[in-house]
Design brief:
Rossmann fold; globular; 10 strands; single chain
Amino acid sequence: MQNSKIILTEELVKRFPVGGGYFTALNKINLSFGKGEFAGLVGPSGSGKTTLLNIIGSLDYPSEGKAIVMDQSIGDLTHRQAARLRNKYLGFIFQTYNLLPVYTVYENVEFPLLLLDTTTTERHRAVLDAVEWVGLTDKLKSRPGQLSGGESQRVAIARAMVKKPEVVLADEPTANLDAANSHHILQTMEKLNRELQTTFIFATHDEKVIQYLRRKISLEDGTVVNDENLGNEK
């Protein structure tokens, strides 16, 4: 566990145009992540954690340096190639859930599989497994408007996990949840990490999330100021 490096950044820089100049959101980031990690990018708003998560997730491109995910250099990918990387290897969990309101729980969880070469039978089995993982089998026919915030986030986790991705990227996944639901969500993700060896990387400043991390990477003003093993082995 945590030996083969599946994510690597080398002197990673990201700049955004602002007025007549540029704002440097990330400045020479050097990090690596191995299979099965449960790690967090931690820092205040504007520290660069979401920008870094977006580049690792191939949702954005480096300005300089490299980000290599599953042996693919993000900066060299076309939009189509980046989409294939996301579809095959990555799962995403957002603070706003991003569920499709007219779809049932079953249909929301099934959606990522429709982009892959899977049969109806394979999709059905995978959806049932994913929904069972998060304890929502009785909500399969419900729509997002009928769910609580905690239930909606659990559906989002099931959707991220349904294809058994190598990496799940979670951007402030507990921001809209109370303490009880936050701990339930984190325990669910911890269980999936342990059972499936999926790498989880969070962007967060929530102390409840930090309690569960096994590795904490602190960012300030676009630079890594600390990278520590918290020793929370499960």
